[in-house]
Amino acid sequence: MRQFLAIVTSLVLAGGLAAPAPADAQAKADIVIGVQCDRTGATQIVGTVLCPGFHDYIALVNSKGGVEGHKIKALEIDHEYKVPPAVESYERHKKEGAVTMAVYGTPQIYALAAKLTEDRIPGTSPGFGSAAAADGIKYPYIFPIAATYWSQGAAAVDFVKKQMGGNMKGKKIAFIFYDNPAGREPIEVMESLAAKEGFQLKIFAVPPPGVEMGAQVLDIAQRYRADFIIAHLFGGAPAVSIKELKRVGYPLNKVVSFVWGSAEVNIEAAGGFPAAEGYYTMQFAGVGSDFPVLNEIREMYKKEGKPAPKEMASTVYYNRGVLIAALHVEAIRNALKAKPSGKITGVDTKAGFEKISNFTLGGLVPPLKITPTDHEGGGLVQIWQVKGGKFERVTDWYSAYPDVVAKHIKAAK
Amino acid sequence: MPDELGFFFLLMSNGVLIGLMYSLIALGFVLVYKATDAVNFAQGEFVMIAGLAVALAMSAAGAPLWVAITVGLAGMIAFGFGLERVVLRPLIGRPVIAVVMATIGLASVLRGVGPTFFGAGTKTLPLPISDAPFVIGPLFIPPIQLLGAAVSVVFLSGFGWFFLWSRKGIAMRAVADNQQVAMAMGINVERYFGLAWAMTGMVSALGGIIWGNLLGVDINLSLVGFKVFPVVILGGLDSIPGAIVGGLIVGIVENIAAGYVDPYVGGGTKDFAPYVLMILALMIRPYGIFGKKLIERV
Amino acid sequence: MIQRECGVLKTSYEADMALYPLPIARWTVAVLAVIFFLLIPLTLHEYYLSVANLVWIAVIGALGLNILVGYTGQVSIGHGAFMSVGAYTAANLATRLDSPWPVNLLAGGLMAAAVGAVVGIPSLRIKGLYLAIATLAGQLIIEWTINHVTFISGGVQASIAVPRPRLGSMVLSSQRDMYYFLLVFVVIAIVGTMNLVRSRVGRAFIAIRDQDIAAEIIGIDIFRYKLLAFAISSFYAGVTGVLYTYFLGIANYEQFQIGVSIDYLAMIIVGGLGSVLGSIFGAIFITLLPIVIRIGMESFGSVFFNPQTVLNLIPNLRLMVFGALIIFFLVVEPDGLNRLWRNIRNYFRIWPFAY
C-alpha cells in the first residue's frame, strides 16, 4: 500500500513538473499582462472583487477585437498576500512573455521593484505603496498610476480642513492605521502637514489582523477626544473600526477613510449602509454602476447569455479593477502605435504608460497625466459619503498639497 | 471623575469583558485537552466555520435567529463527532507534535473550505441587541460584550459543574487521567473522546455567534484563535477556572498595554504583551496558575 | 542491487563510520552531482531554475528545523523569526557597512544563532507544547521588534534592498547564477548536518529527544545541549534568511511571518522527522505543491469550472490540499516521505530476493 502511494505521489509530482508550458501563442501575437491577486489572504475581501473587474475589462477589449488587432491575455496568479508566491508568479509571468505586470500588494511591489527594474518590465501599484516610486526618474519601471498613500494622506488632511471651515489650528486629529509598512507610509506626510497647518496629530496603531481595536477606539474617543479621525485600514479592519466607533458613540461623519476601507463590502460587513451613515470614503476610481464601460461589460455578458457577475454590484473595488486594466491596455495601445510590428517589450510599454493623459473612460478614471518624471499621474481622488443607503459623491477629482508630497518624494531614498 | 481615572476604568471594564469572551473560546480548547490530551490548534477555525454556518443559515435561508443558532450548534456537534472519528482517533498515543500538526493541517483545510463554500465576503451576524452602549458614569459598556461575558460565565460554570459532579464528567476525567484503567473500568473511551470534541464544537458555535456579531464573519474570525494560547497557558491547559482567570488576565493586560504602553513605543504591543507575560509566568510556574503538574516517569 | 553490500570489508573503525562506506554510494553521489551541477542548470529555462532556487533555500531551512525538532525533540514555531533576524542583519551590514556577502552571511547566521539561544532559554523549565507556544511568543516578539525598531528595519517600510552578491568581478544576478550560488550552500548544509548527527553532539541531541531524564542522569548536560540545538538550528535559519534576501534582492519581515514557520514544520513532518533525506524530500514537496496544484488546475480545471471560479478555487484548493496532506501523512505514514523512500530502497536492496 505504501509503495503504491509512493509511486503515485512521485508520478503526480513528475507530471506536474513536466506539464508542457502553455504554447507561446506567437501565431496571433497575443499580448500578455501578468496579473497578481489576493483571493485567499488578508485582503481577499478586495481581491475577489477587484480581479474579476480586471478580467472583465480585458474580455471586453478582446471581444471588440483586441488592441490594434492583438488579443490581450491576462494571466492571473493568486499570491495570498505573501511575497514568495508573488516572486514565483513574477518569474512565471516573465516566462510567458508578459510585457506589463499588475502587481498587488505593498510588500510585493517592494520585493519586486529591483527585479522589475533589472528586467525592464513596468509594474503598477495603484493605490498602495511605495509612494516614493512616483518619481519616474528614480524608479523608471514602477508606476503607481493612482494616488499613492502620501497623496491620499494630503488629500485627507485637505478634506478635513475644508470640513472644519478652513482652519485646523489647535484641532485634534487621530490617525488610526494598520500596523504594517503600508499602513505606516502616510505618517511622515501627515506629520509634515500637522506642522504646516498647526493641528495636533496622534497616531493609533492597530496590529494585524486588525480584528480587535477596542482599546484604541476608546482612547481616540474618550481620552484623546479627537475632532476628526483619518482611518487607514485594510481587509476586515475597516468594518470593525466602524462598529467599534459606533459602540463608543463617535459620530461617523467625522471619519474619513483611505481608499482601502471604502467599499460596499466594508460597509456591509459593518452592518450595512444604514449602520454606517455619515462615513466618508476616499476613492481613486469612480463609484457606482452608471458608467458607459460598465454598461458595455453588462452588454457583453448579455450577449453570451450569462447574467452580469455579482462582483459588479461591489462597484468600488470592481471599478478599480476595471481602471487598472484600462490603464494597462492604454499603455499597450500606445506601445503598439509606436511599434506597429507588434513585437513590443517592457521598454515599449513603459513608454506607453508615460504617454497616458486625458483618458477618463467616461468618468471612471480620473484625468491622470503620467509623464516620464511623474508616474503617479497627479494623485487625484474623490470623496464619497455613505448617505441614505448608498454612496454619494461629495467632491470632484482633486489633489492636495502637491508641494509637500513632492518634497517627500525628493527626499526619499 | 478625572479624565485619566475614568479612562483607566474604561480600559479595565473593556478588558474584563473582552477577557471573558476570550475565556469562552479558550473553553473549547480546555475541554478537548482535559478529556483527550489533544491540543487543538484549529480552535479559531472552528469558531470561524461555526460563525459562517450560522450567518449563512440566517442570510441565505432567511431562517429566524433561533433556528440558525440551533442549526449552527447541531452542525458543530456533528462536526466534532465526525472529526474525532476520522482524523483524531488514528492519532491516539502519538507524540505531541503529531496531534499539533494534525490540527494545524485541519486549520489549513478549514481556511480553504470556508471561502470556497461560504463565499469570501464578510457576513454579518445580527443579534437582537442594540449597538448603543450602556453608559454608567465614565464607562461605556456595549451590550454585545455584556452578553458575551454572560454567556461565557454561564457556560464555564456549567462545564465546571459538569466535570466535577456529573457522571459523564467524572468519566471523562477518568479517561483523561489514564485511558487503560478507564477502559478496564468499563468506560467506553472512544465514545467519550467523541463527546469531548462534540462539546468543543458546541462551544465554538457559541463563540462563533458572539464573536461573529462583534467582528463580522469572514476568514479573519479564525484569528481570534491565536488569543487562546496565552489564556490557556496562563490558566493551565486543562483547568476550567484557569480559563476564566487566564482570560481576564489577558484581556486586562492587552488593554493596559494598548492604553499605556503603546503611545511610547509606537503601537502594536497589545498583541504580544500577553505572550511576554506568559513566558514570565511559565518560568515561574511551568504548568500555568491552575494547571496540573505532569509527573514524568523514566 | 544484489551486489550492493557484498564484498565490502572494512579494517578500521574510521572506514566503517565513513559517510559513504559503500562504493555504490559514491557512484550515486557522483551521478547526482552531475545531474544537479551540470544537467539541470544548463538545460532548464530560467523559470524552472527560479523554482529550484526556492527549493534549495527551503532545504537549508528545513534541515535546520529538523535538527531542533526531529533530532532534539524540541518543537519550535519560531523558525520564520530567526530567518528574519538573519536577513535583516545581513541587509543592514550590506547597506550600512558595504560588507561583502560572506561576512553578511556569517554575521546573519551568528546573530540568528544568538537570538535562537535566547529564545531557547525557557527550554530549561518547560517542554513539549508549552515550549512550542513559548517559541510562538518569541516569533511574535521578534516580528514586532523588527517592525518597530527603525534602526533594524531601515525605516517605515521595513524593507531593505540589498545589492547583488559579487564574486570577484562577477555580479550574480540571473537565476542560473543564483542556482550555483545556492547549490554550494545546500551541499555544505547537507554534509554538515549529516556529520553533525553522527557526531557526539548529534548523539546527545538524540538522547535528549528520546529520554531526556535518563540522558541527564548519565551525564549529558541537557540544558547546554538544548541551547546548542536552538543555536545551531537558528544558524541554519539565519543563513536561509540571508540567502533568501540575496535571492529576492530585498529584506522584508512580512516574508517571515508565522505562516512560514508552519510551512517549515509541515516540510519536516511530511518529509520525515529526524532524517536528513526527509528534510530534503519535505522541502521539495511543500515548495512544489502550490505550483503543481496551480498548473494542474490551469490545465484541467477549465473542464469543470468557468475561469473565474477556477481562479477563486486554486488558492483555496491549495490550502485544503496542504492541510489534507499533512493530516494524511500523519495518519497513514507518520515517518513521512523518508519512510516511503526507505521502503522502496529496502525492497530494491535485496531484490530479487524477498528478505
Summarize the structure.
Chain A is an alpha/beta fold and 413 residues long. Helices cover 43% and strands 14% of the residues of chain A.
Please give a structural write-up.
The complex is a heterotrimer of chains A (413), B (298) and C (355). By secondary structure, chain A is an alpha/beta fold. Chain A has helices at residues 2-18, 44-63, 83-95, 106-119, 149-163, 181-184, 187-197, 214-224, 237-247, 264-269, 292-303, 315-338, 346-353, 402-411; strands at residues 31-37, 72-78, 98-102, 123-124, 142-143, 172-178, 200-206, 228-232, 255-257, 280-283, 382-387, 390-393. Chain A is 43% helix and 14% strand. In chain A, strand 8 (228-232), helix 9 and strand 9 (255-257) form a beta-alpha-beta unit. In chain A, helix 2 (44-63) crosses helix 11 (292-303), helix 3 (83-95) runs parallel beside helix 4 and helix 12 (315-338) packs across helix 13 (346-353). The longest helix of chain A is centred in the last third of the chain and has 24 residues, at 315-338. Chain A is globular. Chain B is mostly helical and 298 residues long. Chain B has a single domain (2-120, 141-284), classed as ABC transporter involved in vitamin B12 uptake, BtuC (Orthogonal Bundle). Chain B is 73% helix and 2% strand. In chain B, helix 1 (3-36) runs parallel beside helix 5, helix 5 (143-165) packs across helix 6 (167-177) and helix 10 crosses helix 11 (269-284). Chain C is an all-alpha fold and 355 residues long. Chain C has a domain at 24-258. Chain C has 15 helices and four strands. In chain C, the strands form two sheets. In chain C, strands 1-4 form a two-stranded antiparallel sheet. In chain C, strands 2-3 form a two-stranded antiparallel ribbon. In chain C, strand 2 (166-167) and strand 3 form a beta hairpin. Chain C is globular, with a radius of gyration of 21 Å. Chain C starts with 12 loop residues before the first helix and ends in a 6-residue tail after the last helix. Classes of the chains: A alpha/beta (413), B mainly alpha (298), C mainly alpha (355). Chains in contact: A-B, A-C, B-C. Chains A and C meet through helix 1, helix 2, strand 2, helix 3 and helix 4 of A and helix 3, helix 13, helix 14 and helix 15 of C.
